[in-house]
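Hello Y.,

Per our agreement to keep a running log of every chain we model this quarter, I'm adding this entry. I've kept the format consistent with earlier entries: sequence first, then predicted structure.
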Amino acid sequence: MSSANTSLQLHIGEIIRNAVLFNPETHQERLMNSDLLIETVARFFTLLRERQIEYVLVGGIALLQYVEGRNTEDIDLIMAVSALEQLPELHVETRDADFARGTFNDLKVDVLLTSNPLFDEVRKSYTTMQRFVEEDIPCATVEGLILLKLYALPSLYRQGNFGRVGLYENDVATLLHAHHPPIEPLLDELTLYLSDSDMAQVKQIVNEIQERISRFEKRS
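Predicted structure for the entry above:
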């Protein structure tokens, strides 16, 4: 499954640098090094290409290929554990069965591991090449991003993470409103990876989002 390329050419390094600069909580040392992030980002993706490491860009940077979004200070990738081992320059700080978090110099990198079956399915079936200023990069499609956001929401609700719940639900709403992908096949896909109770919650969330979109379209 593939979504249309918006033809908007984004500069990942500048997006991350600007997010750091405009974050009032950024430490002074990181502010001083913010200009180096542009070079660091380019070098990171060059290493991935030169070592033929398989990955998919997801998260906030991928979202910006399809809709206007919020600032993001990190890079989110889907990768295999074996791919991490090919990139010793990425200092892994935390890791569990599904996720790893690390730094490449001053660049924050979050990794969704393909040991999670849904993440692996997004890598295999919901990916398209997108052109960035740095280079052409494999990127999650609109459908892939929606799957990842919906998959995460039940867990975020259990954690009581109100801020991230709001962000993820808004991301899904914005993608659905802008691109109108068929939602039923995506819900069918999620039934393979979520419990019945989590699926019931996801379907309720989607219904509420669709009602929001309908109200907005009627009023506008």
